[in-house]
Amino acid sequence: MSRRVTDNAVGNRPTRHAKTIIIGSGFAGLGLAIRLSQQGRTDYLVLERGSDVGGTWRDNTYPGAACDVPSQLYSYSFALNPNWSRSFSKQGEIQSYIQGVAKRHRVLDKHIFDCDVTAARWNAEAAVWEIESTKGDFTADTVVSAVGALCEPMLPDIKGINGFEGEIFHSARWNHDAELTGKRVAVIGTGASAIQIVPSIAPQVAHLDVYQRTAPWLLPRTDRPYLLPERLAFRYLPGVQRLSRAAIYAARETQVVGLAKFPPLMRAFEAIAKAKLRAEIRDPELRAKVTPDFRIGCKRMLISNNYYPALSRPNVDVVTDGIREVRANSIVTADGTEREIDALIVATGFHVTDSPTYNTITGADGRTLAEVFDEIGQQGYKGSAINNFPNMFFLLGPNVGLGHTSMVYMIESQINYIADALDTVDRMGLRTVEVRREVQDAYNRGLQAKMAPSVWMTGGCSSWYLDKHGNNTTLWPDFTFEFRRLTKKFDVAAYRTTTRGASRSELKVVG
Ligand code: N01
Is 191 in the pocket of ligand 1 (CB under 6 A)? Predict the structure, then answer.
């Protein structure tokens, strides 16, 4: 059980201690919480800034929000859902699934909701993490950051945007009270979020301007409702759902060959995307505007059957001139054209390689994660540990992202690794574990060497996959089963460790 202590290094305020604290309860943090419970661990807490589980699936409620990965694969392997209503799930169904899993596995009482972690500091003397939050102070022997990469909306730095007087909101903070029907609306961005929003709102608004900086590649979305016999088979015929999942996994994994190893193979996808473009956009001028100029896959490949038809509607314009400024009720582009609007939807993505949460975590040498990343780039070890941050693990840390298949697969690989790390710490009586800098450096050299031929580095685009040093510190550059293999066991030899002693003087460095 977590216990209350009354006096510790955080100050003299009451501080709650838990052996393990998980920050964030999206797919990642929740999955780890369930694993800890399954292992019989009770001394852990999950601090979640929202008022519910679900993370990105709780936050992204924009019209049309749905997953790009097939339903069968986009779920926990230990909680298959035979009830998916369609082959690609919508946000509401995924969020209900996550809520249901949390409830069934009885981990909600381990959660503290509306608890925004504002600081986490490593106290080397006491070998604990000191955490400040909007729900009080905590200490923990081990912290697992599970905040995810797509949680901090990025607002564009456009002149005058703060002076806009109409409705304005980010795609991940949709204002459901804003009335868009019959209004003049602008959407900035043409990424995965925007291409779902645009067709969803186009029929209801008076006019829609889509501000496109880079045209994305689009592939067909093979979405359809499941037929009753299929759902019955998933429910009652043993193995059918696992077989379907395995087939989807295998098919998606073949994309790695083109994406990561031999990008010319991506031409096959390009041919499909071009045919789609020709079939769905008849107007040559519009078609030219939305034809991408980089190799497919360099930025995330998007899937949609209704985006191009929406762009072809008479009440929709694609604006490719750069935005010069936003005024009280309009947007002015570089060519001097002013377009009046009532509402502005900012679908400009997230702080991925420069998350503000990095400023709140302070490691062993007093530097924040932001400062460390500023110097060496967003580097870690197996996406799960970072030198200078002892007794801290990361779910969805550096270089575990994917564009082609389910992130839940990567999350479960990391859960295996971190759960085994916690077991190892207990079994060996370790006080601290910190990944060795030389191991981390070698790992990243290997990673970047693998990354070099990938389409993400050679495809001729700029993307949020790259950090300010020009390295791709976001994606995993290999087959996902290779990551599963690497994370099967906690490799304690890669870590500098100290053992527990009654006092600091008895501290023994064992590795
Ligand atoms: O964000 P993005 P997103 N002026 O960063 C443009 C996941 N996801 O929210 O390409 C003008 O992809 C920017 O232009 P450019 C998925 O992993 C999944 O759409 O940088 N434009 C781009 O067009 C995804 O990759 C799902 O030139 C500006 C757009 O804004 C990730 O979330 C659904 C600008 C941002 O696109 C993020 O997707 C949704 C500026 N100043 C999201 N700044 C599914 O599974 C940025 N842009 C379905």
Answer: yes
